[in-house]
């Protein structure tokens, strides 16, 4: 039976794409055709968020593997936001996209089990994968990988994040001489071996920022069985030409994620973006998605 990584790699081959698009809806950046700025009740805002996400999904689904909703952008609207997220997940799946919930969860064992059920079980919030915070250690991670979890679901553990302060903790030098993220990579390598698929990749993937290619090169040579989820390409300054080392020798193993540079590309393309219509929004989003796909295909 296929594991999560097998399903994902099959999609890479079918769509000839390693691109993931983040869904981080911020109504401050919505044109008037989506949201009249005078309208500030939560239901109107979350309805426009759902409409925006559907608009994006309609144009990107042939070109990308997955969407990556960032939970904070939905949680900020309470139950209305969660409903918009559930509907977004459902719509993305109906268009054949994988869903990676960027929730960065992690807790003591029993609570991690509840998180695993919420994001990888039968819940309406369940996608195909979820991001996991490893700060609690192994027992905060393993519940996401156990038998009770479907083999077709995966996780991406934060290993080397894309932000400027990532080094504060992740690069701390241990007594052994290793950096903290290198030690974490060893632990994850052991855990990854329990859920291997046909293509040699495990259900345990890692987050490695596009802004740290040197570290990525070390991690790729060390963690051979983990898919990389790579945020930081585009708006955070990560460049396609630095990303070859994130892929394996077959051009597989990395999913390059871009959010603002794609979903708000109309702000770059149109000076008067507040007054553009739905067609113009979608046209910009499709152009920038195809550009990302081509840039990444050229280096992988
Ligand atoms: O290391 C990390 C982990 C997660 N993120 C998230 O990815 C997107 C990035 O958005 P861009 O607009 O492409 O910069 C966002 O949701 C972050 O929370 C990350 O950036 N880095």
From TrEMBL:
GO terms for molecular function: orotidine-5'-phosphate decarboxylase activity. Pathway: Pyrimidine metabolism; UMP biosynthesis via de novo pathway; UMP from orotate: step 2/2. Residues 18-276 form the Orotidine 5'-phosphate decarboxylase domain. CDD domains: OMP_decarboxylase_like (cd04725). Its EC number is 4.1.1.23. It comes from the Bacteria. Pfam families: OMPdecase. GO terms for biological process: 'de novo' pyrimidine nucleobase biosynthetic process; 'de novo' UMP biosynthetic process. The keyword Lyase applies. The keyword ATP-binding does not apply. It is an enzyme of class 4 (lyase). The active site is at residue 104. InterPro entries: Aldolase_TIM, OMPdecase_AS, OMPdecase_type-2, OMPdeCOase_dom, RibuloseP-bd_barrel. Keywords: Decarboxylase, Lyase, Pyrimidine biosynthesis. It catalyses: orotidine 5'-phosphate + H(+) = UMP + CO2. Belongs to the OMP decarboxylase family. Type 2 subfamily. This is Orotidine 5'-phosphate decarboxylase. It comes from Polycladospora coralii. The lineage of its organism: Bacteria, Bacillati, Bacillota, Bacilli, Bacillales.
């Amino acid at each position: 039976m296929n594991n999560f990584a097998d399903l994902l790699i099959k999609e890479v081959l079918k769509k000839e794409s390693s691109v993931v698009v983040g869904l981080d809806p911020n109504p401050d950046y919505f044109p008037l055709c989506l949201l009249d700025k005078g309208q500030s009740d939560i239901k109107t805002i979350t309805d426009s968020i759902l409409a925006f996400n559907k608009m994006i999904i309609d144009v990107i689904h042939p070109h990308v593997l997955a969407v990556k909703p960032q939970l904070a952008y939905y949680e900020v609207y309470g139950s209305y936001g969660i409903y918009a997220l559930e509907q977004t997940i459902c719509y993305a799946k109906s268009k054949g996209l994988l869903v990676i919930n960027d929730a960065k969860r992690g807790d003591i064992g029993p609570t991690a089990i509840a998180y695993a059920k919420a994001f990888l079980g039968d819940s309406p919030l369940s996608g195909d994968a979820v991001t996991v915070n490893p700060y609690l250690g192994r027992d905060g991670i393993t519940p996401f990988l156990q038998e009770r979890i479907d083999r077709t679901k995966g996780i991406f553990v934060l290993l080397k994040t894309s932000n400027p302060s990532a080094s504060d903790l992740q690069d701390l030098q241990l007594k052994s001489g290793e950096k903290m993220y290198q030690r974490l990579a060893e632990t994850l390598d052991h855990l990854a071996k329990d859920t291997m698929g046909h293509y040699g990749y495990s259900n345990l993937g890692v987050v490695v920022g596009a802004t740290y290619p040197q570290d990525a090169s070390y991690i790729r040579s060390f963690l051979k069985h983990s898919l990389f989820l790579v945020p930081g390409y585009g708006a955070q300054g990560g460049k396609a030409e630095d990303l070859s080392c994130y892929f394996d020798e077959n051009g597989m193993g990395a999913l390059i994620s871009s959010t603002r540079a794609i979903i708000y590309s109309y702000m770059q393309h149109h000076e008067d973006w507040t007054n553009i219509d739905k067609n113009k929004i979608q046209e910009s989003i499709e152009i920038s998605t195809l550009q990302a796909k081509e840039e990444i295909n050229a280096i992988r």
